[in-house]
Structure formats: structure tokens, C-alpha cells
Amino acid sequence: MASGTSGGRITTKTTSMALRVAKGLVGGTALAGGTYAGLCYYAIWNAEQRVKRIDVEIVELGKAVHKCEGEITASLATAEDIKRQRDAMAKKVEGVRVSLAKAEEQVARLKGDLEQFGNQVAEKDAKIKEQSQQTSLLRRMMQERKESVTVAKEALSAAHKEALRTRREMDPIKRLQLDRFV
User: Coiled-coil regions in this chain (predicted)?
Assistant: First the structure.
């Protein structure tokens, strides 16, 4: 720090320097040689004032640097927190990727099962169709047999009637009886 300042405060040395400058200015007007001394004192005073302003600026800049250091520390802490959050999020993303891969495997397996079940359903449908055709054929055969049975019953009935008629007509005893009556 400059010899005339102590933390931005005015000291006795600065005050005496200001008095010299003022004396020099007043005395300088009386003497031509005093003007040069007044200018020198003024230049010294002006330089000390600049040094004081620079000291004040240095103090303010020191405070600003200290504040910036605090902000940098806070920013670094925030960056570390963000990195931890990013790492945690990356772990979650990896977990989701693993879950997705498992889900995709399960979907592929389920698609295979679905295809297999679809094939089984198609086989069952083909069997149902085959059984339906066979049932239809059996129904037709049954219907034909029923008709055949009906025809056979009618033929049997007709044959039975014919046999009875023939028996009546050809019965030798009855013929004898008829011949007797005739």
C-alpha cells in the first residue's frame, strides 16, 4: 500500500501532503519559483489520490474476486451435483435399456407362442372342417340308410302282404273248401 493510505483511510501523512500542496499553490502565486514547487506538490498529491483510488479498486476487486471464488465454488458444487444426477440418470437409462431388451425378448417369445397357437388353431379348424365334412357324409349315409330301411320296410310289408295273399290264394285247404262250395 502507499505510504499515505491505510485501507482507504486518510492519514496524517496524506493530510500534511495536502497542506503542502495548498501552501505550494498559495506560495506559488507569490513567487514564480513557488509555482514549480506547487505543481510538484500537486503532482504528488494527484498521484497519491490515484494510488488511493487504485487501492480502493484493488480492495473492491479483491471482494469481487472473493465473491467470484465463492460463486465458482458454488458452481463447481452444482456441476458435481449435476454430474451425479447425470450418472444416476445414466444408470436409470441403462436399467431401462436392460428392461427394454428383456421386454423385447419376451415380446419375441410371445410372438412365437402366438404364431404357434395360431398354427394350432388352424390345425384345429382344419380338423373341425374335416369332422364337419365327415359328419355331413355320415348324415347323408344315415339318411340314405333310413330311406333304405323305409324302402326295405315297405318292400317287407309288400312282400308280407304278397305272402299273405299268396298264402290265402294258394292255401290247399282253403282251395279244397272253396272247391267244395263251388
Answer: 93-134
